[in-house]
Amino acid sequence: MVQTKLPNITHSIGVDIGGTKMSAVLFDLEKNEIIADYQLATPKDNLDNFLVMLWALIDPLIEKAKKEKFNVGRVGIGVAGVVDQPPPKNLEGKILDSPNLKIINNVSLGKIVFEKYGLPVVMDNDANCFLLAETKLGAVKNYASAVGVTLGTGIGGAFTVNHEIFHGVHGSAGEIGAMIVDVVEDVPHTLEEMYHNLTQANPELVAAEAYEGDELAGKVYEEVGRFIGLTLASMINIVDPEIIVIGGSVMKSSGLFMTEIKKNLKAEILSPKLKKIKIVAGKVERAGAVGAALLSPSM
Amino acid sequence: MVQTKLPNITHSIGVDIGGTKMSAVLFDLEKNEIIADYQLATPKDNLDNFLVMLWALIDPLIEKAKKEKFNVGRVGIGVAGVVDQPPPKNLEGKILDSPNLKIINNVSLGKIVFEKYGLPVVMDNDANCFLLAETKLGAVKNYASAVGVTLGTGIGGAFTVNHEIFHGVHGSAGEIGAMIVDVVEDVPHTLEEMYHNLTQANPELVAAEAYEGDELAGKVYEEVGRFIGLTLASMINIVDPEIIVIGGSVMKSSGLFMTEIKKNLKAEILSPKLKKIKIVAGKVERAGAVGAALLSPSM
């Protein structure tokens, strides 16, 4: 009898597809570190252009891995939207709803990437990837139960139970952006809508204006902080976790809104013990892409 | 060596302490049926009167069990509020926050009941008890993951993961009533507050008026249904369950608000697959007390 030894997977590719930027990393799974990373603007006009840029993002990392003779075992992809099923069920890797990148709606992206590179593809929501990275390597490493929020073009949410991402039955658990936080003239508004409207769909620009002393932009971010705090309280009252971690590109401007988040969060938490919950900033660089690289088919 | 055989526990007492009524059952754990049950108005003036009525509720059931030589193994108590810790950690059985029955706030009710009857006491939130009964015996028996909502004096919420009640880290998970659903003139309002204000803290009376043709009362319940639907959507977008079950004393008037709940719920669910979620009425009679009777120290 011949014993075949499976080659040991040492590296993976992680891709983070956001509404404005997309980034990819070549990741060392043994040392838990980024070997190389690229970042590009997300093409939003059509799927062909999107795929051209996606290959431009991944190709150099695959080339580098070949040259170094790394054994790349898989490609992990995080998407700002609802992925058909949580891993390992998302064989097609279909994106059901991506509010900030409509060109990939109903696209079986996992299958397309598999056919391109011949590597197993694992996909998940981008906020789940962010929280996975922070849980395995970052700010909430020693916590069994954390809530994660990402502030970028849109707002993403996720939570862990017993150190694992909670996916729910259809893979869409943790969607804090979809929570209703206000009803204005009989029309309900989600946190995502409030965030989008307040920041005029350009949160980084408005943050820069606020830092330059624009009072209106400053007020916008106080409002953003208030609505995030209120909605986060609603989520915390449901999930009852140990800690909250916030990340995403807008967190570099956290000075504009963190006080408001904390104030409104604590005011609206029901359980006296839960009111003392810690709230921390994410620590992992390129957490979305790193979390995607950490996605495993056995999850 | 003498082998001692532990007596087989065949029955338990289940107590449901609501903001308006409290009820207790003597429950057959083998046949899963109620042997006897009592119901009383909840005294709200002071703790001594409350305890007098609580003993009046439980004493006859203990007497009956003694007479029939049932082996009653424990007392389970469901409370409309936050209990210190989920079972089995709530040894003191302290109530941290009971918004509709403030006289039991910070009272170690579990300890008091244990000292009175000498039986192990297990406590939990009343909505958790409701959902436990519906999960073990009722409308969501074959579902691993359900969200439960109770409509009574207040609004309670709970959810199951892998057929078990999800308690969270501090025992306060699932609190749908504490979720923010509207901000009116800069003041955030929880679902519980909207429900309380709309029904003037007397939901059963307003429901009766609506059935008698009072148009204003009818409108109130349309609004109640709308806000429940919106908030439930927020919770569903976080938990991503298979099914929703609604119970509580106000569900006998479900004709007044169920259409509005469903309409607003479906409109606000993010994931396309989750939008098809089923919503059913509870089936178990005295579900709160039965669920309390089913509470087990090993949970």
Describe it.
Chain A is an alpha/beta fold and 299 residues long. Chain A folds into two domains: 11-129 and 287-294, ATPase, nucleotide binding domain (Nucleotidyltransferase, domain 5, 2-Layer Sandwich); 141-281, ATPase, nucleotide binding domain (Nucleotidyltransferase, domain 5, 2-Layer Sandwich). The first copy, chain A, is 34% helix and 25% strand. The first copy, chain A, has eight helices and 14 strands. Chain A has helices at residues 47-67, 109-117, 126-137, 191-198, 203-211, 215-239, 258-268, 287-294; strands at residues 11-17, 21-28, 33-41, 72-79, 82-83, 95-97, 121-125, 146-151, 155-161, 164-165, 180-184, 187-190, 243-247, 278-281. In chain A, strands 3-2-1-4-7 form a five-stranded mixed β-sheet. In chain A, helix 4 (191-198) runs antiparallel to helix 6, helix 5 (203-211) packs across helix 6 and helix 6 (215-239) runs parallel beside helix 7 (258-268). The first copy, chain A, starts with 10 loop residues before the first strand and ends in a 5-residue tail after the last helix. The model of chain A has no long low-confidence stretch (mean pLDDT 93).
